[in-house]
């Protein structure tokens, strides 16, 4: 119930921020699909092509984020509180950055074969991306609040699952892998993937704040 | 001297946020006590019980944080600036997260015996928690500012001490421990403990901002 | 176009925040110069003197940041939006913290000789510091926007370069260095340096937000 939410009743429907946020979240879905493909493909040449594609989509995401920030700085009335749009945009950007970081490390550190826990984490990221995209899509009408909340609860529960998966994967790595350099490399990739799910949870929390304020 | 602080004179004393913040900070004291016990107990079965207890208290803390955020999103007038309450609540939550993270790693990585520098860091975290709890408790009346400031200065000085302790512990580890895998494990736990004291400093800084604005 | 920017037309030119921010950014330039000298000097005694000097300048930076935060909490009208001044001050502080962290690790972990990629990263940090200092200096008059934007674009491109440099240095480290403990030590220093350039980019983004709002 901020001053901004009072203003919102006086102005026509937003035609700027909601479409931009939707592009950002659907770009995230695409990146997360490519990540999952990268993890499950065995041809090393095709795997590198996937890393390049993630890079390209990451640049696209950067441009969307940049446009949102420019619009925010020069627009007086926003569909939700200014800082929530900012958190939402940078949160979606952060998820893609960590996905990109993990893909890049797989290439640079010549990780092969892909560790089974990496595949599982990529699958969890893909699920989070899908839920977040649906939640962002529902911000337009602000109807179907029950469904948005279900998506947010799912993201929180996937993140908890990813947390446990990461902790156990690292613990097993310490037991099974005797080469410390290999441990460092694999841990770096797992850690980037796990942080991506943390960032998904941050975005879910931001969306929750937005819908609470509109209530 | 924000618009919010002007409103505060017109409304009855807060009965919502201050008690919630007090629960959060007293929960932190409890978590930090359990952490210290965990570090100083030698019975491995009892140590695991302590990890479980920290987990339980961390969930309790999550619920308090979540309540504060929901209340913030739906309340028009707050006892301090909205974003300061938000920083304070998530700051207290972050400290507990890092305490939990260090306890979990001790269990998962089967760290035994506990490294002496872990015990010392747990003691410093316990001291910070006690000072922060006192400072949060004094926000209610906003009297005894000298005592609050003393607490905040203490937290800053404990954090500096923890920083040096961590740096020296890691440097010694590199010299004394020849097993790289052991280095990685111990460093992970020390690093989570040290980050917990960083988060204590962040909370101290937020409290300082709050009392400066009320001056 | 916030309420604050409307107020700004009604009050005399800022004599408080701009000079403080200028001190903070010129202190950063000094720290980055000392870091570069530290990296290129071969005398180990002089190198330790440089670490001490960075420590001293870091304390000076802390005091400037602290003054800015106190002033922010007690001042009603600010030359730019309150939160942007806050981000700018803590961003400049963060850069110095990571520079200090990398210098401290070089001393503590007895890194000798200095890795060539550390020298290159220190040079990139020095370039970023110079560009940021010029951009901060131009905030006073808000003229010569083209030149500010050029500086910000340069910082973004230097950060991309630092990112690639770091990734490739770590990848090569994994291939060439067989001692895992050495890898961990060198990676810690490189990582602190690379994070310093990330923080430079954050500051550049904050300055961009400030000038967009004034447009």
CATH class identity of chain A? Mainly Alpha
Known CATH architecture of chain A: Up-down Bundle
Largest interface: A-C, 15 and 18 residues
Number of strands of chain A: 0
CATH superfamily of chain A: Phosphate transport system protein phou homolog 2, domain 2
Mean pLDDT over the residues of chain A: 92
Order of helices and strands of chain A: HHHHHHH
**Fold-level CATH name of chain A:** Methane Monooxygenase Hydroxylase, Chain G, domain 1
Give the C-alpha Rg of chain A: 19 Å
User: How far is the first residue's CA from the last residue's CA of chain A?
Assistant: 9 Å
What does the main sheet of chain A amount to?
A: none
Shape of chain A: globular
- Helix-residue proportion of chain A: over 70%
Q: Please give the domain count of chain A.
A: 1
Structural class of chain A: mainly alpha
The percentage of residues in β strands of chain A lies in: under 5%
Low-confidence stretches of chain A: none
Quaternary structure annotation: homotrimer
Query: Given the structure, what is the number of helices of chain A?
Result: 7
Provide the descriptors you would attach to this structure in a database record:
homotrimer; mainly alpha; Methane Monooxygenase Hydroxylase, Chain G, domain 1; globular
């Amino acid at each position: 119930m901020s001053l901004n939410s009072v203003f919102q009743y006086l102005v026509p429907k937003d035609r700027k921020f909601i479409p931009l946020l939707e592009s950002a979240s659907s770009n995230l879905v695409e990146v997360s699909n490519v990540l999952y493909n990268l993890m499950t493909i065995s041809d090393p040449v095709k795997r590198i092509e996937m890393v390049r594609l993630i890079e390209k989509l990451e640049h696209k995401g950067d441009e969307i984020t940049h446009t949102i920030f420019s619009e925010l700085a020069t627009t007086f009335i926003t569909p939700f509180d200014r800082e929530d749009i900012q958190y939402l945009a940078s949160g979606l950007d952060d998820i893609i950055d960590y996905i990109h970081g993990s893909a890049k490390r797989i290439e640079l550190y010549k990780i092969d074969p892909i560790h089974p826990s990496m595949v599982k984490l990529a699958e969890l990221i893909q699920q989070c991306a899908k839920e977040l995209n649906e939640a962002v899509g529902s911000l337009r009408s602000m109807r179907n609040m029950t469904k948005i909340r279900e998506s947010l609860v799912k993201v929180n529960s996937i993140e908890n699952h990813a947390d446990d998966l990461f902790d156990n994967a690292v613990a097993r790595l310490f037991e099974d892998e005797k080469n410390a350099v290999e441990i460092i490399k694999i841990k770096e990739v797992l850690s980037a993937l796990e942080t991506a799910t943390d960032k998904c949870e941050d975005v879910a929390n931001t969306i929750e704040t937005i819908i609470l304020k509109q209530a």
